[in-house]
Every structure is written in structure tokens, then in C-alpha cells.
Amino acid sequence: MRIVIVEDEIKIREGMGKMIESQTGHMVVGEAADGEEGLEMVLRFKPDLVITDIRMPRMSGLQMLKELAERKVRTHIVILSGYSDFEYAQKAIRYGADDYLLKPLAIEDVRKMLKDIEAKIQEEDAFGYGNQENRLRDIFFGNVEASEEQIEELRRVCGFAPGMKYDLMAGYIGAAQPGYKEQVEKEIAELGRLYKDYKIYLMYQENRQIFFCLTVGKAEDEEEKSWYERAFYNQVVGKYQKKEERSVWAVTGCTEYNLWEAKEHLERNLSYAMVLESEGWITDETVENYKAELFEYPLELGNHLKNAICRGESEEIIQAGEAFADYMNSRHYTPGDMRFGFLKTYHIVEDTLQDIDLTLHEHLKNSGIINRMENVFTYREMSETWEDVIKIIAGKRVKRENISNYIIQRAINYIREHYQEGITQEEVSRKLDITPEYLSALFSRELGIGFSRFLRRFRISHAKRLLKGTDMKIYEVAEAVGYSDAKYFARIFKEEQGVTPGEYRQLN
To answer: How are strands ordered across the β-sheet holding 198-205?
Structure first.
């Protein structure tokens, strides 16, 4: 079985993973520290079993279970709970969980649970759980590389003939109008009735909003296949593209041996909707003819937006954000470079807010925009997401001056330039020709946080980047952010983050 473990206590999570793999022979394909990460892993890996705690930060196990049920994700779920959470465990079972385990865990209980779940899966297979489409979907999405066993299963389920070529279409419908999903299903069902010599398997990845349509036909006539492809385009793509449905489809040929490669190939083609916004039907020829230019990040525009945020001028923020989007829209970059450009600028925005406005920084971070940016396919979607970023930072900051106070600006600029040198409130005050008390009062009034706390958080934010992105030793990180005493740095870091620097590095 393929298993995902969701548990916020790292010792329990890692210990269970090692125990399962070393003593049961099952595979742990993912480990998550909360329900949000767990949900993402389940959608990505499609495990046979999810073992999850109930009480976790951000998203509880119960909330994750509800989300999986709403998305109609088929997987077995076992709840971990303490005696105090027994009522929650019972509630989880009512929501569809298979079983629960009480902490502390015993190896024999885990073995018995895994054996019971395995028996359930075998029973479901024996009774033909799901139809051919479900069986194909499990094989198609559950594995990266094809094995002989998987190919044999495909032949049995779909009626593949060895060596024959088949059509595989993929369509991203996230940018389409509501109701398009149902239209696609209806039109493809109609194609199945018209082309009786073909079997048509339609599979939908709900979390990514992508359709895959595999057409298995016994006819060798290439002209007939060409007719079918044109019919598919006319019924599913062209017919609704004129109505601004804005779906993006791609097509390629495949055999039972390169089905997985064809799937990845189509996903690559679909990604070109980021730079081919007008295209609703992307072929290999379309991608090959696209002439990408060398990526060059517009540093001046990024800095302009950063400075506008620091000044707190709403109109200037909007203009700077629009200037960056216009620049990106005017370039002929690859889809990956286009996405990277927007993500880089988003992180510039986030880092700037972290330095000057922690409340707004948290608001933006919790908006879910970064996940949207990472997963959109079309430029229209990326542009709309970017507009939401600008609306958040401009709309919130127009209500008060925040950082507009000239003294505060100078103080923060000085911190940026000298935070590695062990600066103090007294030193900064002298540079600005004001008293330490007045400086602290300004910080508290304008930013809602005292000078010392601001400086401390500023240093810790840079320490986090070094811990995640470098192999520097803890004492080297401490010195790099202005702490000469590594033990004192570790204590301050734990007060701010809840974990030691070493633990933070392990978790990230």
C-alpha cells in the first residue's frame, strides 16, 4: 500500500514512517505536519491509506477528512487520537474514516490496522470497485513510470492492442465559464455514440481542473483517426472557444508503453497557455514554433514596486504593479520563466511587508494567492491573481500612512544596511538625532511594534532564510544577522519561532 502520514509531532510522524516501512513492507509516499500539507499530498500522491492526527495547526484532521469527502477523493483513512479526543475519533468515523488508533501507538495495533485496510482494498478489487474508468484513473494518475504489471492491467481494462497508437487529449478548464465541465462530459459522451469503433475514457483531475481523454480504437485507418480528432476539436474545443469559455486543450498520440510520457508531454504543452493566451488548441507544432527569448528579470520595476510599498502611496503601488504586469505581458518568455518572474516579484512584495508591516504581511500570506500563482495555467489567470496581490497591498495601506513617517523610513533603511553589525536602539537614535524613547514611540505608533522587537524580528527573518537556503553553521548564521553569542541567538530564535534554529532547519 501507498501511505501518507499527517501528524504535527515530528517524532511520532517520522517514527511511524520508519516503523511501517521497516516492519510491514508498505511504502510511505509522504509525510505532512498539518491538514493543509496533508490535503495537498493526498491530492498529489493518491495514496491507498491516509493516517492522520485529529488536532493539528492550520487544518485539523477532521477538517481535512471533510475536504477529501467534498472533493470525492477515494482513499482509506485512519485517525490517530488520544483518549481525550475519543469523541472526535468517533465523529471522524461518521464522516467516513475507516478506523482510529489510540496514542501511544503499539506496533501490533499498527500491523493489525494495516492488515485490515489491506483486506478491505483486496475485497474492493475482487468486487470490481469502480468501473473501467476508475481502474484506468488509478493506474494513470497513481504512477510515474510504467511497469509491465501496469501495462498488463491497462491491456485488460482498456483492451489495448500491443504496439497500436492511440489518441490522448488533455484539457485545462480552470479558466472556462461555470458549467463547462458538464458540457465537456456531455459532448464526449455524444462522440462515444457517434464513433462506436472507439472506447473513450474520460478522467478528471479535480484539484488541477484537467481533463484527460484517452481514445482507444481498433481501426488502423489514419484518415478515420484524423476525422475523429477534428470531430473532437469541433465538439469540445472550437464550439465553446467562440463563446469565451477559455479552456485550453492539447492532443498527442501514444501507445500503451508511453502513455505516461504522453501525459507529461501534454501537460507541458498545456503550460504554454501562459504565453499563448489566444490559443485554445495547442499542438506539438504550436509549441515548436514558439520562439522564446532569453529571460531577463526587470529589476528596476521590482525595486520600483518595493519602494512604492515602503512609501505607502496607494496609487503609486497600483501603477508600479501594472507596469510590471505590462512588461511581462510584452515579453516572449517560456511558461516557466513567465511564472518565475511573477513569483519572484511576489516574494519581493512579501519580504518587503515582512520588514515594514507584519500585519499586512500575514494578511497577504494567508490569502492563498501564492498557491494560485503556482498552479494557474493561463496568463489571464496569472494577471488576475497579480491584480489581487496589488489590491491587497494598495487597499490596505491607503487607510493609514504606516511607513510614510520620514524618521521611520530612515531608521528602517539604517537597519537594512547595518543589522549584521549588532546595532542598538541607542545607536540608531544618535544617527537620526532623536532620543531612544521617541524612536521607540514612533515605531509603536506607526508599526504597532517597538523598535527592539522590530529589529529582533528583522534579524530572525533573515536568519530563517539562511537556515533554509544555506549550509552555514548555527553560530555562523547568528553572526551573520548581528548576534555574537550563538546561545543567546538560539534563545531569541526559539522565543520568536517556537523551535530552535536546528529544529527549524530540519523542519524546512
So the answer is: 198-205, 210-217, 166-172, 248-254, 281-282
May I ask the CATH class of domain 405-507?
mainly alpha
**Domain spans in the chain, listed from the N-terminal domain onward:** 2-126, 132-282, 299-402, 405-507
Mean pLDDT of 181-188: 86
Query: What is the value of pTM for the model shown?
Result: 0.54
Give the integer Cα–Cα distance in Å for 349 and 357: 11
DSSP E strands in 115-209: the ranges are 166-172, 198-205
Whether domain 2-126 has CATH 3.40.50.2300: the reply is: yes
Mean pLDDT, rounded, of the chain: 82
Residue 171 to residue 378: CA distance in whole angstroms: 12
Label residue 468 exposed, middle or buried (CB < 10 Å: 0-12, 13-18, 19+). exposed
- What's the order of all strands across the beta sheet hosting 49-53? 27-32, 2-6, 49-53, 76-81, 99-102
* Residue whose cell numbers read 511520532: 12
Please report how the helices 132-142 and 259-271 are oriented relative to each other, as an axis angle in degrees rounded to 10. Answer: 70
Topology, domain 132-282: Alpha-Beta Plaits (3.30.70)
Give the H or E element holding residue 27. Answer: strand 27-32
